Amino acid sequence: MSAFLNFTGTLLKNLVTKPVTKNYPEEPAVYPERTRGHIEIDIDQCISCGLCVRSCPPRCIVVDKGAGTWTINRFDCIACGYCASKCPKKCLKIVPGYQTPARKKEADTYRKSPEVMEEERRKAAEMAAKKAAALKAAQAKKAAAAAAATPAAAAPVAPAAPAAKPAPAEPAPAAPAAEKE
Ligand code: SF4
Ligand code: SF4
What we know:
This protein is an alpha+beta fold. Among the domains are: 32-111, Alpha-Beta Plaits, CATH 3.30.70; 113-142. Helix content is 36%, strand content 11%. The chain has helices at residues 2-16, 51-55, 82-86, 114-149, 151-154; strands at residues 38-41, 61-64, 69-72, 92-95, 108-111. It has a 3-stranded antiparallel β-sheet, with no helix packed on it. A hairpin with a 4-residue loop joins strand 2 and strand 3 (69-72). The longest helix has 36 residues, at 114-149. The protein is rod-shaped. It binds iron/sulfur cluster (SF4) (2 copies). One iron/sulfur cluster binds next to helix 3.
């Protein structure tokens, strides 16, 4: 009897309340705030350090510094969030919402803007010039220190005195003539 009453109560309640299921995908899903959905990148903040690559367990990130690209294979990503926690520029974040389903396994590539690439090239050239100047200065300093440590070596060498001429040999005395008997 109590089971029947229970059932009737649930039935009446469900008649007057909304269904708990959603008409997805017509009705967009609402994800809880901390859902581990997918990784997003603010590519222009990326410095191509590669820390995300090294921290990714399934190795699904590729960074190409020269080309200014950051690529992720979303099919291999396990949404662990390690890359986002290691990124020194905080340009990676894990956000709610899942990747769009696809028939083919393709990677997503993000490319830096030309302005950012140009700025990076300029900074790299500046850095290389500074490094070369510092190296040159260090070499000059080292050479000066070496010269100061050995003054004799640096002074001009006096020419050696000419060797004394050998004295002419004295003529040998003539042998005495034999006495006649
Ligand atoms: S969330 Fe995890 S698996 Fe996905 S890209 Fe980042 S480190 Fe790799
Ligand atoms: S860790 Fe961050 S800054 Fe470094 S390559 Fe990855 S996304 Fe770029």
